[in-house]
From TrEMBL:
Any GO MF annotation of the entry: DNA binding
Protein's organism: Exophiala viscosa
Source domain of life: Eukaryota
Keywords on record: DNA-binding, Membrane, Metal-binding, Nucleus, Transcription, Transcription regulation, Transmembrane, Transmembrane helix, Zinc, Zinc-finger
Protein name: Uncharacterized protein
Residue span(s) of domain C2H2-type: 11-38, 39-66
Chain residue ranges for the region called Disordered: 127-152, 293-314
TM region(s), chain numbering: 717-739
SUPFAM superfamilies: beta-beta-alpha zinc fingers, Zn2/Cys6 DNA-binding domain
Zn(2)-C6 fungal-type domain residues: 89-118
Amino acid sequence: MATTSNPAGLYTCGLCKAEYSRADHLIRHVRSHTRQRPFVCSICAKGFGRQDLLKRHMTTHNAGNSFDPDISMSRGTSNGRNGHRVHQACKACSEKKLKCTDEKPCKRCSEKNIFCDFDTDMQGYNQPTASDISRPFEQDDSGSNGAVSQVSDNNVDVNENLTGHDDTQYRVSEAFSAVEVHQSNEEMTTPWDTTVRDMLDSALNLPVMSDYVQFDQDSIFEDTDFSFYSKLFPSELPPLFPVPSVSEASPQPSTISIGAEAYRTSTVFATWNPRKEDSHHTDQQDLVLPHDIEPRTNNAQPPGTVATPKDNLSQSSRDQMLAMILRTSSRTDSHRIAGSFPTLQILQGLVRHALLHMQERLIGMFIHIPTLDLNKERPELVGSLVAYGCIVSPSPAVRKFGYALQETVRVAINQLVQEEHATLRELGVAQAFYLQLYLGYWSGISRKIELAESSSMLGVTMLRRGKRLCADQYHPPEVFLDLQDLTIHEKWLKWVEQESMKRLVYFAMCLEFHVAPSRGLGALFTCGEMGTPLPTSTKVWNTASANQWWETLTQDITLATQQPLPLNRVLRQPNLLANNLAVGDREFTAFAYLAGFWSLVEDHWHMNSLLPDTQAVDDFVLKSRHTELSTILECFKSEFTDQIETSPEVQILQDLVGLHLHVSLDEIARYCGKGTEDEGRASAPYVQRWYQSTQSRAAIWHAGQILRATRLLPPGGLVDIFVAGLYHAALVLWVWGLLCRIRPSTWVSNGPEVVLDDAETAEVVKFLKSGRLKPYLTNQGGNKFPLEDLASVTELARDIITKNWGREPLPLTTMETFRFLQDFSKITRQRFDEMVIKNSST
């Protein structure tokens, strides 16, 4: 028994100061505070605080050998005394002294159509049962002072500090932040026996236990079993994800890898298996363009774009580009390619179409059109521009020509840098490389994507070894204005070259960020090395002449004398971005910042993957890092994107980063079928823990906001990373709805609701904190539907693509995403046709 007044007690509880003469008694007592149940039934996953209680419980399963754990866990059936004991009875069953079930609402309340009221704060924890608290701790014969342990009634509710709040006083950002870390108690002042310390430190590898236990220097533990000490003292922080028992049943096998067929038939996700005859000559037949096909290009200049160069493409430039193609072609194809090569007028139209499209759609324009002289550029850059113009053309035959030309440019650049090493430092070669890399990454063809991935390091090497990432290589405009013996036009050209390189650096980093989440790639650029100043304001960049450039700088001294801060200065301090608003390109700065922030999120998940699952979800360092990243991202939102009018593109990327911060999309995709069946089963425990955590609610909120932002994109804007973000959002929402079906929640019919693809409200905050509101989405007709309506989730994403593109031909990446979502919807309806949920919207 605990004797708080007995000075001879060797072991003292750090919370309630109860004293015990034996360590195992203190261990049992501490579990009353922590609610630990380390001894888990391998059949029904019920936890117990003592080994003997688990053994006694196991006899209920062994009696008769006819107990069905699956039926018992889901329905709570019992056969007399040997039946399954529920973790917590609802209030109605408790008052009537009737048998309840673990599944809430319980079976009795559902059948009688009455409200099933129970304490939701205790959900997710193994509750103490009557057998756990009815038997006092047994006293060892050798216990000193006749002390017998007892269970303290002062149980600590670990969720207490998360519930009592005024919802209207919080923003969504506070819902993502972890609770503050409490200061630990002072270190114990008495010496610790060396033998005991060595045994605990080396053999058991325990955390510091001074918060709970005060040891006497003469205590010896040779006769005590410490095998379960590693589970005794969890951090005072609530876990990032609630950790279920080790033997917790995984989701039903039929729900794992449901979408495997959709992944297998996708040209993006399917694994490319090269054949012996495959080479860069594979696409050369597409370079033969039929004479009766003429590319349809839109040469109308949209508002806000810069006119294309006045100098048309010369015949000499056309011949140089054709010679580049023929050098990489086989002899059998060379004559056909030369005979059908597009005319000078067609090539000129394709280049103009490419430049106009890049200004509208490309994230971070890095080619300065007013100073672009096509006849002085290398054929690799001209060829990449022609390829770009072909690929964004609506004609399928012209698109094939563009992808074949992109492959040719890739091979030609590799040959060029091998033959002329000095070209590694040329701006035009680097621009051509990243333009064709962009086309390859977003081609929607697994072969081209893999080849682009294999060659991407060449571009990084060009920039890194050319010292393009160093801050001392860049100067403010006033330095160029002060150059002697140069005309204003020459000074302008020098500044444009520097600014073009800056923009290319951040375009390259953004491209890696955009591709990495879908392809599972690591960041090629590190945040610490990004010393390149962020892009300068478009007010200076878009000047059409040297005189206009000079006038702009002389009228605004800030633009002339200051450069935007580099990414490595602002990444952890987004409040500094406010200083960039006057001198920086706001939208490009947002893209670059989110690209750098994604690398921090990726590092977080890499650290998480190095630890065992049960340790990773409760690791103090990882939880602290997650809290820090959540705070930084919210600071960026409040200090930057909330201060200016942001585009839908920025909003999509911001929520996409937030989505990846709160969920491992690799695990979600493997669970859905991207990979083998074994990989799907291995991901099930993570998915299960994630669904039960606050992180899942934060993730589906960001996913809903992605759906909302994609509706705001201009026609034809749902491409590349934006359509990939739509796929990520739909996948996360689909999995969350699937788990809602498997593990029904406690929502009350006609209870409070929250719409995930709507504006932030007080209900959103309440949902993120407590999860007691039922989440809904809004279809294209404006009607709400719950996430459990799985097919409607993917169909909504598919319909958003349809509305954005109308009757225009879809780009390959967008088309593959559309097909994948359509296949996923079809599979879902086939598998769950008998469980179709009635739409609860009015």
